[in-house]
């Protein structure tokens, strides 16, 4: 518990979602300006908790992801001196993050505002950054031997502050990121600030041992961050961390990128489809007609009707093996 801690914070900075969040008809409206003020206070608390604590901040913008701040970057301390009444690390974090966010938001034009949010890119960059600080360059002793003190490595975790809904096309990269976080033993915490629950981020928090919390009282964002996400993973073993009442384990199909209740998994490559297919589009494995007929019995009624309509409008054509190909 005396070891330093590292936290990588991913900020969902979708302009359209934050505009909806700030509307006065919401029960607890929260603007982007108020959100940043509370998040920066939380980040300053993390820095002040221990001198060796490290911090990295990533911004997820429409169509891209950007590193906003890194405490291990020497350029972070090269800015001009400011007010003498402000603790220097706090001033660096506040000015650097706010300035970078303003620059990125101003560079977004009208055509880019509707682009998918770059949450997956920010998560991947956070994992790569943590992997780099967990495996630093070994130091060399006077006798020429190299040593690496594992006690000096920070205890890493990722915190995602989300306001955007699920994007079905990002299911595969998010699952790959989850598997990477499991291998690196990195906890992923998720705080859902606005919008419906995200199925994929629920699974990310559950599979990595983190916590997923839907924030109902958004005016208490800072209190929630301090009580739930400020303690390090070692201290969490002594605390009652919020847990999920229920977890949605639904997946997105590989054919239409839709979140499905009933899916069919390829026995070779484990690809998921919303209905039985004669040939797997991923590994090109062919399945016998008897298997397809048996699996059709498990289809929901709505899916059967849609499948029957597709067959009526476009009859299947025979393939090289004599099996009908699935209409798309």
From TrEMBL:
Q: Which family does it belong to?
A: Belongs to the TFB4 family.
GO BP annotations, alphabetical order: nucleotide-excision repair; regulation of DNA-templated transcription
- Which domain of life does the UniProt lineage start with? Eukaryota
Q: How does it assemble?
A: Component of the 7-subunit TFIIH core complex composed of XPB/SSL2, XPD/RAD3, SSL1, TFB1, TFB2, TFB4 and TFB5, which is active in NER. The core complex associates with the 3-subunit CTD-kinase module TFIIK composed of CCL1, KIN28 and TFB3 to form the 10-subunit holoenzyme (holo-TFIIH) active in transcription.
Query: What does this chain do?
Result: Component of the general transcription and DNA repair factor IIH (TFIIH) core complex, which is involved in general and transcription-coupled nucleotide excision repair (NER) of damaged DNA and, when complexed to TFIIK, in RNA transcription by RNA polymerase II. In NER, TFIIH acts by opening DNA around the lesion to allow the excision of the damaged oligonucleotide and its replacement by a new DNA fragment. In transcription, TFIIH has an essential role in transcription initiation.
The ranges of region (Disordered) come to 306-328
| Annotated compartments | Nucleus
Protein's organism:
Heliocybe sulcata
Q: What is this protein called?
A: General transcription and DNA repair factor IIH subunit TFB4
